[in-house]
Q: What sequence folds into this?
């Protein structure tokens, strides 16, 4: 109970601070954010767009962990947990893509320009989209769980490359690309302490929110299975 | 002194902030109620003998 109130207040604070705190050239007050060249006023997206991309990674990682657990223990509850995590993962992946595209319209001039970052997240969406197609095409529960667990493990192998490595070694428009001289590694030294604090508070709040949503998601999937079993038994 | 209305008219970002807060409050209470309902289902399951 207490953590829910904590989450509510934390994400409210992040929303207030992330949206309303002004970006100025030379911050003198604790609530002012520094002007980052190349990002300017658009920099505020970092408090909302980066956490969604971060949750994509967390969710797909949890999905893979529970896929491995399913293969080891053959417990269908683990499959439900893996499935619920991947559902959230794809939702946050789409959110990251959309928020990024809206931001790109004003930072780069067009919604979509096949930047390495955009291409890699698109590939990721396709890979995980195929996972849901695979799941919906198999009727037997055990078979579906086993096959999708194997696919999920293989799919996750691509995540570090698509999210962390490929967009950083290729030239592109996204902050953090190989030829990026303006924004560069933003989190490390372009932010001031207070901006970093709010950024990490935002990551924390979104992570707690993810685990809450995941908990509700897999519980409802598990209950649905139990109810189905009770009815088919009786 | 300018009124609150005028202040908001000149600083539209605070309107965005208020709207985001309202949306977040709505989502939060939706999740909160869903959590309560799922816990009730869980309790009922644990009391029934069908729960394995």
A:
């Amino acid at each position: 109970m207490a953590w829910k109130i904590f989450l509510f207040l934390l994400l409210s604070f992040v929303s207030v601070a992330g949206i309303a705190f002004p970006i100025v050239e030379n911050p003198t007050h604790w609530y002012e954010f520094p002007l980052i060249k190349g990002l300017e006023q658009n920099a505020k997206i970092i408090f909302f767009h980066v956490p969604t991309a971060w949750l994509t990674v967390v969710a797909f990682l949890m999905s893979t962990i529970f896929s491995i657990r399913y293969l080891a223990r053959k417990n269908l509850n683990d499959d439900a947990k893996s499935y619920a995590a991947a559902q959230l993962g794809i939702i946050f992946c789409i959110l990251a893509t959309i928020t990024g595209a809206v931001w790109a319209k004003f930072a780069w001039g067009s919604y979509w320009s096949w930047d390495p970052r955009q291409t890699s997240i698109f590939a990721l969406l396709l890979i995980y989209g195929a996972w849901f197609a695979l799941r919906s095409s198999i009727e037997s529960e055990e078979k579906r769980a086993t096959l999708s667990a194997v696919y999920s493990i293989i799919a996750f192998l691509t995540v570090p490359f698509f999210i962390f490595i490929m967009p950083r070694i290729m030239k592109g428009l996204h902050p953090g690309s190989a030829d990026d001289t303006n924004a560069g590694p933003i989190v490390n030294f372009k932010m001031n302490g207070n901006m970093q604090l709010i950024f990490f508070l935002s990551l924390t709040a979104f992570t707690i929110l993810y685990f809450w949503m995941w908990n509700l998601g897999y519980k409802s999937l598990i209950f649905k299975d139990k109810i189905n079993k009770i009815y088919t038994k009786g | 002194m300018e009124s609150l209305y005028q202040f908001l008219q000149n600083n539209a970002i605070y309107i965005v902030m208020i709207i985001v807060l309202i949306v977040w409050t709505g989502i939060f209470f939706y999740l909160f109620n869903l959590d309560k309902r799922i816990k009730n289902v869980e309790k009922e399951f644990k009391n029934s003998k069908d729960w394995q």
Remarks:
- The mean pLDDT of chain A is 89.
- Strands of chain A lie at 23-24, 33-34.
- The helical segments of chain A are 2-20, 49-73, 76-107, 116-136, 141-169, 186-190, 193-233.
